[in-house]
Write a structure and sequence with these properties.
Elements lengths: L18 E2 L1 H11 L6 E4 L7 E2 L3 E2 L9 E2 L3 E4 L1 H4 L8 E9 L13 E5 L11 E4 L27 E5 L9 E2 L10 E3 L7 H9 L4 E5 L3 E7 L3 E2 L10 E2 L2 H12 L2 E8 L3 H11 L5 E5 L9 H6 L17 E7 L1 E2 L3 E7 L4 E6 L3 H20 L10 E6 L5 E2 L5 E9 L4 E4 L8 H5 L3 E5 L5 E2 L4 E6 L2
Amino acid sequence: MSKPDAPQDPRPAGDHQRLWSVDEHLADILATVRQLEPIELQLLDAQGCVLVEDVTVPVALPPFDNSSMDGYAVRTADVQGASEEFPAVLTVIGDVAAGSGELPTVGPGQAARIMTGAPLPPGAEAVVPVEWTDGGTGGGAASGMTPASEAPEGAAGEVRVHRAAEARAHVRSRGSDVQAGDLALAAGTVLGPPQIALLAAIGRGTVRVRPRPRVVVMSTGSELVQPGEALTAGTIYDSNSFALAAAARDAGAIAYRVGAVADDADTLRSTIEDQLIRADLLVTTGGVSVGAYDVVKEALADLSTGGGADGTDIDGAGIDFRKLAMQPGKPQGFGTIGPDHTPLLALPGNPVSSYVSFELFVRPAIRALMGLPVSEVSRPSVRAVLEADKAIGSPAGRRQFLRGKYDAASGTVRPVGGSGSHLIAALAHADSLMVVPEDVTSVEPGAELEVVLLG
């Protein structure tokens, strides 16, 4: 990697606004965003949420000794030395099915048909799988059991056992999974399917969690047309709101996508007022640069004066529009709005800029609202070797994020597409972001880079 000869001020001549670093902007966001208040939810409603309390095991799991196989519950002494040539012949005294209450006692020379998950009956010391027996048919090795509906023939008579079994063979011992009083799940755990299963298995019907944040995403721009509609001269399809709503869901949020808002400040303010009631976080895309139609800046930059389009006060702490030392995504806006000081992140309108900005700033904000620690709010990153045909250039004083394809096996990363912030197709084929630091202007093939993993 080569570095510039001397530090350079990346701001355009005459621009006296402070240039924020990526880290400063993220720190400001995380210092402002507050965890959502915990609530009690039914198990399936809690999926994807963060647990706020330690959960201990009320009863041992499994709560009783049970069979791990379909077969026969036996005493080990009765099958000692059993073989194909000299099988142990036992009297079958009945069935033990999963959920059985009253259990037969297995005495000397006896066996009980037992199903997977059924409690081990008194007197039995092991389970022999049905495949080690004749299944009570008097023939060769069985492949299955006679259906219970054909009892008493299948649940009585004799069974020939062709193999010996050691004590506790094919028996799941009481408490072999967890013991009563054990810590099942610690506070801070994100509840996925396995965690939901454990909670259900120990009898928890509800759990206390921080809810999934409600994120409202809206695009701005009179040129935007919704997919499925016909394009006219000068219009394009709105992809940003779909990309960001999907990204919000991927981050763990409940996402609400609002159709594109025209370039009118009063309309935008009115739309934001309407959405505040269902938002823990607002995300806009577009209208934050220096153009004559950058409606987000026009609508929100003067919040300190108060007042919405219809007279409703949507004033909060205000939105700060700033420039960041990064590419893409230099123009950004952040602050709070409304009586509840709802966080609002205003992202650039170029598709790649908005998506990169989401990954760097919005995703961490969502994860912070969920209650995850700072160390877990951002995407993981690795170091990888650049595999490219030529050196990659980067502007001095900017932290550049380039789309890449990461190969974990070889520890390499290749660029995908160019550096243009409008190249959606290249973004769709990337699985990572290659990070070029602010003080590096050229990265040669074979150099090592930080790589942010997407997904």
